[in-house]
Write a structure and sequence with these properties.
Layout: E1 12-16, H1 21-32, E2 36-41, H2 44-56, E3 60-65, H3 71-85, E4 90-93, H4 99-102, H5 114-142, E5 145-150, H6 162-182, E6 187-194, H7 216-227, E7 238-241
Parallel strand pairs: 1-2, 1-4, 2-3, 4-5, 5-6, 6-7
Helix pairs in contact: 1-2, 1-7, 3-5, 5-6
The structure holds nicotinamide-adenine-dinucleotide.
């Protein structure tokens, strides 16, 4: 259950990675609570299908073909939010994933081709930086907004998953710096770092102290709390939601 006091009435949200998993769920839930949502994903067909369903249910949404490796695509998604819905109030950068899994490449760092390393850094680390660069001018004009980055427990724990960890840990610093930069304009920035989430069944294999992985909703409701006015006192911080993976006994 997502808290019904969370309200996005009159707000416009830009969500990357909105065509599946947590990004899709967050887009649907924010739209249900009044947000106009720009679903920014490389998979346009799927993003359009989700946007259609949101509109059919009475919400406001549109899809924007966005490869988050390209700054112009991200800027286009932000510009669409402003031209179609009048503002850019919330961004959530869900697009991402462990590159060896996403590109079906080798897991061992020393066997990884440079293209895989670059993809991992660009999608997981550079894209949220690009998003901040694209949206901050509008948020400064508006004197407000919320930027949410999606990290990972893998960016905070000892791990051999070097590329993904490097990119996701960078979001801790990005979040602090954007929050510092945005504060004089009333702009907040937070990061949510999930443990294993059941957007894929095999995430259930990843160990946690409580012995399970999260339902997507358990992460999305934290994201929505921080992105809404319920999170008004919170900025610059990274929230670990990992079911105790970091405190488990080996
Ligand atoms: N699922 C987990 O266990 C878990 C754990 C920790 C962190 N995370 C992070 O949460 C986020 C969402 O995870 P999920 O499992 O819901 O994702 P998912 O794999 O279900 O969805 C990822 C989305 O990103 C899109 N995408 C991929 N490359 C893109 C690109 N270049 N440009 C634009 N869009 C692109 C895909 O089309 C897809 O719609 C990711 O950043 C992931 O790293 C996930």
């Amino acid at each position: 259950m997502i808290d019904d006091r969370i309200d996005f009435g009159g707000k416009t949200a830009i969500v990357t990675g909105a065509a599946s998993g947590m990004g899709e769920l967050a887009s649907r839930e924010m739209a249900r609570r009044g947000a106009a949502v720009v679903l920014a994903d490389i998979n346009l067909e799927r993003a359009e299908a989700v946007a259609d369903e949101i509109r059919a249910a009475g919400g406001r949404a549109l899809a924007a073909k966005t490869d988050v490796r390209k700054f112009d695509d991200i800027q286009n998604a932000v510009d669409k939010a402003v031209s179609e819905f009048g503002s850019a109030d919330v961004t959530v950068s869900f697009a991402g994933g462990e590159p060896a899994r996403m590109l079906n490449g080798p897991g061992d760092f020393v066997e990884q081709p440079i293209e895989l390393i670059d993809w991992g850094l660009q999608v997981n680390g550079r894209a949220p930086l690009y998003m901040a660069r694209a949206v901050l001018p509008q948020m400064i004009k508006q004197r407000g907004g919320v930027i949410i980055n999606i990290g990972s427990v893998t960016g905070l724990e000892p791990t051999k998953t070097i590329v993904y960890s490097t990119a996701k840990s960078a979001l801790v610093g990005l979040t602090r710096a954007v929050a510092t930069y945005g504060a004089p304009y009333g702009i907040r920035c937070c990061c949510v770092a999930p443990g294993p989430v059941l957007t894929r069944p095999d995430m259930a294999k990843m160990e946690t102290a409580l012995g399970r992985a999260a339902e997507p909703e358990e992460i999305v409701r934290l994201v929505m709390f921080l992105a809404s006015d319920q999170g008004s006192f919170i900025t610059g911080t990274t929230y670990l939601a990992d079911c105790g993976r970091m405190v488990r006994r080996k």
